[in-house]
Amino acid sequence: MKKVILSLALAVGISATASAQARIGLKAGGSLTTLGGADAKGVSNKFGFHGGLVANLALGDVLSLQPEVLYSMKGAADSDNSKYKINLNYIDIPVMFQYNADGLFFEAGPQLGILASAKSTDGTNDVDIKESLNTIDFGYAVGLGYKLESGPMIGLRYNGGITSIDKEESGTTAAKVRNNAFQLYVGYMFGGK
């Protein structure tokens, strides 16, 4: 039964994709990130960068599906000592559902983050902290923006973590700490009019 349902879902997905207008593009921008959650105390915002590839598949006149693969700099700064920072680098894979209204779009969807590197720094020394963090970060994203049929786009997005980034080790309880980010970006979609 599972194979039948999976095969049917795959067939529907392939036929929807085949009939959909697909566009590929690039996007990049700045990020304002921090850590949230019950155990995220004494942290402030940190600036970073994000950028990568996007694909947009039209699912009708006003709906589209937009999977992305992005390199994202996240983390936080210490609110008492601005030299101390936690620098987290992720490969983020959001899958956004977009509602399009004459160029203006609203979007929401799940996001999977894969931790590429993690360091804490005091301004002089870097310490690798990747082993103490979860490799996978589940979250969500919501945003809005404007795109022209000819290709250019601009957007603002909020990314919120659902799972804690701290790894639970034997005999200890993981701290409840999640990634949060605001992202402002520009991009270009190829294959426009």
From TrEMBL:
Keywords for the protein's UniProt record, in alphabetical order: Signal
InterPro entries found in the cross-reference section: Beta-barrel_OMP_2, OMP/PagP_B-barrel
Top-level taxon in the UniProt lineage: Bacteria
Signal peptide, first to last residue: 1-22
A Pfam match: OMP_b-brl_2
UniProt domain Outer membrane protein beta-barrel: residue ranges: 21-166
Protein name per UniProt: PorT family protein
Source species: Hymenobacter properus
